[in-house]
TrEMBL record:
Pfam families: MptA_B_family. The keyword Transmembrane helix applies. It comes from the Bacteria. The keyword Membrane applies. Keywords: Membrane, Transmembrane, Transmembrane helix. It comes from Marivirga lumbricoides. This is Mannosyltransferase. The chain crosses the membrane at residues 7-23, 29-45, 52-72, 180-213, 225-245, 252-274, 280-301, 313-335, 347-374, 381-397, 403-422.
Length: 434
């Protein structure tokens, strides 16, 4: 094994620790410089993957994730809402039906003012599904915030390890080099946002890969169950059901969808016994009609609205983006060839969701990484570099989105996507992940 990749591995681990434990989100220059170095080392190591065994790659990937075990997330406050929800359940309160400020006034020691002050959306009802809430509840038994964070992280790590083990097997099913797993295993955004900042896309990715694995084995029921479990953690994977259209006979597709939806509904069953629908509906409506961040197509529509109406038309454009998302996804999967691999269908399906979203945080695009690896597209990896620059908007006093950064991000992304499509059609490989 060459000495240079060994040194790169050591430096990669050091940078994961320094950017996570010692760099604040508002220190933009330092944060982006470290991330740039991380990404450069990641590319260097990934292109030298033939020097390493699968066990070496996955082993180091797990070590890097374990090195973040004691980290209090530095790029996102979402974990504090996770803990808050868990503490509410632990004290016999319904986190779906009660706002955080209502709970803090009840005087429970677990629901303290310091924890409340760390919440990023205390004025909204929680919208996290029951399976997530169960993990929050288990984590709430810890006596300290760090203890709760460690418990949640162990669940995330379990999903991550599952993906690291399963992905090489799926790569073999597609007659691809199983060492391509390195492009997911060491991707800086994947490590920082999932194991670091504790986003539950880790479960979506694992169960989506599991669904592909079983589908390729012609085990449709197991695949449908896996898809249903992905939906249980985030409702967005519902869109992946369209990816199976025309891949199997229509009656089997209907059965597949029914099984997946029934599995998801079973995990959502607790909601039917709680007074939650008003709160969930309110928070979900606000998400589509109020929140906007790092959008692409929506921002163009918004600018047209400012020009035509003189004000922000998100109340109209938000739901419109949802309709266009559904239309684009259904149309694509209807027009896609039967021979198009499931992973590629998932890739474009998830991309349509991302492009029409009014809010797109960096971790939302992470499922594209595995779908891209399985279908030999590199643009999701490029996006994991570009999208990190959205953190430049954070300051000590809050957040101010830099639309020039957003514009540059999408211009470069769209350019690379077009470039890859053209190369694919010419049957000239853009890259062979050596």
């Amino acid at each position: 094994m060459r000495i240079l990749p060994k040194i790169a591995f050591l430096l990669l681990g050091t940078l994961f620790i320094t950017i996570s434990y010692f760099t604040k989100r508002n220190e933009s220059l330092l944060l982006l410089s470290q991330y740039g170095l991380l990404f450069g080392l990641y590319l260097l190591i990934s292109n030298a993957k033939e020097n390493f065994t699968i066990n070496y790659i996955t082993g180091f990937a797990i070590v890097f994730r374990l090195s973040l075990l004691l980290l209090v997330p530095n790029l996102s406050e979402d974990v504090f809402r996770f803990i808050w929800d868990g503490k509410m359940w632990l004290n016999g309160l319904d986190s779906y039906a009660m706002l955080p400020f209502e709970a803090v006034n009840l005087g429970y020691s677990d629901l303290s003012q310091p924890l409340f002050n760390k919440l990023n959306s205390p004025e909204y009802y929680t919208i996290y599904p029951p399976v997530n809430q169960l993990i929050f509840y288990i984590a709430a038994f810890a006596n300290t915030t760090l203890g709760s964070i460690i418990i949640i992280r162990l669940f995330i790590l379990l999903a991550e390890v599952g993906t690291l083990i399963l992905l090489p097997k799926v790569l073999k099913q597609y007659d691809l080099n199983p060492k391509y797993v390195i492009w997911y295993a060491l991707n800086p955004l994947v490590v920082l946002e999932l194991s670091g900042n504790l986003h539950f896309e880790a479960f979506v990715i694992f169960f989506a890969v599991l669904a592909i694995f079983y589908f390729n084995q012609h085990k449709l029921k197991k695949s449908a169950i896996a898809t249903g479990l992905a939906i249980s953690f985030k409702l967005i994977p519902l869109i992946l059901l369209w990816g199976y259209l025309k891949k199997i006979k229509l009656n089997y597709w209907v059965q597949y969808c029914l099984i997946s939806i029934l599995i998801a509904l079973f995990t959502l069953l607790p909601l039917f016994f709680l007074e939650v629908f008003n709160g969930i509906f309110t928070s979900s409506a606000l998400y589509f009609k109020s929140f906007e961040f790092n959008a692409s197509i929506y921002y163009l529509v918004r600018e047209i609205g400012f020009w035509q109406k003189g004000y922000n038309i998100i109340a109209i454009a938000g739901p419109l983006m949802g309709i266009l998302t559904a239309f684009s996804i259904i149309l694509y999967n209807l027009l896609a060839k039967e021979s198009t691999q499931l992973s590629e269908r998932f890739l474009w399906t998830w991309l349509f969701y991302c492009l029409f979203a009014t809010t797109l945080h960096p971790w939302y695009c992470l499922p594209l990484v595995v779908f891209g690896i399985l279908s030999e597209y590199k643009f999701p990896i490029v996006w994991t570099f570009l999208i990190f620059f959205t953190y430049i908007g954070y300051t000590k006093s809050g957040f101010d989105e830099n639309l020039w950064i957003t514009f540059l991000e999408y211009i470069l992304l769209f350019g690379f996507i077009v470039f890859e499509i053209i190369r694919k059609r010419k049957m000239v490989p853009l890259y062979h992940l050596k």
